[in-house]
Automatic annotation (TrEMBL):
Top-level taxon: Eukaryota
Similarity comment text for this entry: Belongs to the group II decarboxylase family.
GO molecular-function terms, A-Z: pyridoxal phosphate binding; sulfinoalanine decarboxylase activity
Subunit and partners: Homodimer.
Protein name as annotated: Cysteine sulfinic acid decarboxylase
Gene label: CSAD
GO cellular component: cytoplasm
Presence of the UniProt keyword Signal in the record: no
Keywords: Decarboxylase, Lyase, Pyridoxal phosphate
Stored InterPro entries: PyrdxlP-dep_de-COase (IPR002129), PyrdxlP-dep_Trfase (IPR015424), PyrdxlP-dep_Trfase_major (IPR015421)
Example GO BP: carboxylic acid metabolic process
Residues with the N6-(pyridoxal phosphate)lysine modification: 305
CDD domains reported in the protein's UniProt record: DOPA_deC_like
Organism: Cavia porcellus
Amino acid sequence: MADSEPLPSLDGDPKAAEAWLRDVFEIIMDEAIHKGTRTSEKVCEWKEPEELKQLLSLELQTHGEAQKQILEHCRAVIHYSVKTGHPRFFNQLFSGLDPHALAGRIITESLNTSQYTYEIAPVFVLMEEEVLKKLRALVGWSSGDGVFCPGGSISNMYAMNLARYQRYPDCKQKGLRALPPLAIFASKECHYSVNKGAAFLGFGTDSVRVVESDERGKMIPGDLERQIKLAEAEGAVPFLVSATSGTTVLGAFDPLNIIADVCQRHGLWLHVDAAWGGSVLLSQTHRHLLDGIQRANSVAWNPHKLLGAGLQCSVLLLQDTSNLLKRCHGSQASYLFQQDKFYDVALDTGDKVVQCGRHVDCLKLWLLWKAQGGQGLERRIDRAFALAQYLVEEIKKRKGFELVIEPEFVNVCFWFVPPSLRGKQESPDYSQRLSQVAPVLKERMVKKGSMMIGYQPHGTRGNFFRMIVANPMLTRADIDFLLDELERLGQDL
Ligand SMILES: Cc1ncc(COP(=O)(O)O)c(C=O)c1O
C-alpha cells in the first residue's frame, strides 16, 4: 500500500479515533468505575477457562474487526475481570478505586513516556524527586536517594544488590567471582521476594538464613544475633538484614530499633521491607509501629497497597547521599545519557536503575496526595485500623468465628467454624477438617460473585481467612456483610 494513503481503521482519521475513545471512556465509566464499585453488583463473574476463552473471542486473527466489535471486546474484558475496587474485594493487600489516583494512571498511560530522561519526562523527573523527598521525610530522613520500582519485590531486590555493591564494589565488574559466600537474614514471616531475590541475584536461596519469629510474627532479635554468629562460624559473611514492617499474612511489625542495634554491632546493612506497612508512617497514632525505621539503610514501601495509589506504585528509599544507586547500576549509554546535553544531566535519572524504559509511577500518588493532603491520607489509615478493630470485636461476639491472633495492623486472620465442627475442638481430625472449610467457602463466594477474601495455611495452622481492611470506601456494613456472608455460605457445612 502506498504510504501517501492513510492506513485503514482509525489510523488516518483522528476525529473518528477521538470519538471511538470517548465511547471507550464511557464503557470504562459505566462498567469498571460505576458497576465495579457498587455493592449491588458482583465482585467477579466466574467462568471456567474454556468458556471464558470463547466469551472473550481471545484468538487473534489476520483481519481487523469493526470498531463496534472492538468496543464490545472492551466491555467484555471489564465485565469478566475481577473488580478490585469493589467494597467486597478483600483478597489482596490492595483494594479500592481512588478517582484521583485513577486520573493519574489514565494521564500516565495517555502520555506514554519513559521516566529515564528529563528530555522526554521533564514533569515526571521533577515530580518523582518531590514525592520521594516527601516519603523520605516520613521515614525520618532529610536527605537521601530513591527510585520508583516496578513493585515491592523488585524494591527488595534493589536493596540486596545495593548492599552487596556497597561492601564489594568489585562485584559489578567481576560478578560473583569477587565475592565470599554471603549471608542474608530475614524472618520466617518475610515476603518470598527475599528468597526470589537471593536466587535472581546469584546469592542462592541457601544464603538466606531464616530467623525465628514470635507467636505474633515478629522477628526475634536474639535469634538474629544467634544466626549471625552461626553464619560466621560456618565461614559465611553476613551483610544484610531484611526486616519487615507489616508482614504479608499476619501484618506483624519487626522490632526495628533492636534489630538496628544488632546491625550496628555487626556492621550490617539494614533493609526494611515496609511494602505493606510503610503507609502507617502517615498516622501519628500508629506510626510507632515502625519506630527505628530511620536507622535503616534502605526502605521498600508500596503506596499501591494501603494508600490505594494503584498498581504499580512502589519505592525504594535510601539514606545514601553518595550516588550509590547510579554507581551500582549505571552503564552510561551514550545514545541516551549524553553528557553534553543543554540541561543539567543529573536530571537524567534513568541510569539509577537496571531497566532502560521505566513506567511513570509517581503521578498517581502525587495526584492522590494533592487531593487528600497528608491529613486525608492519615484519616484513611486511622479508619482502616478502626474498622479492623471493629471486625475483631464482631468476630469475638459471633458464634462460629475464631481469631487466629490479636492483630496489630489491618490484617485480620480468623477461622470460620461451621456448625458441624462447633464444640468439636477435641476431636483428632478437627484441625484437618477446619482446614478444608476456607477453600470450600472461597469457591462458593467466587462462583456467586458476592465477595473475595484470601485464605492460607500458616506454619502449623491449617487454612484460615485473612481479611484485609484497605479499601477507603469500606464501612461497618461491609464488615457485617463479610461475616454474614460467610455464615450463609457455610451454614450447611
Ligand atoms: C511484605 C511484602 N513485601 C513485598 C511484597 C511484594 O510487593 P509486590 O507485590 O509489589 O512485588 C509484598 C506483597 O504482598 C509484601 O506483602
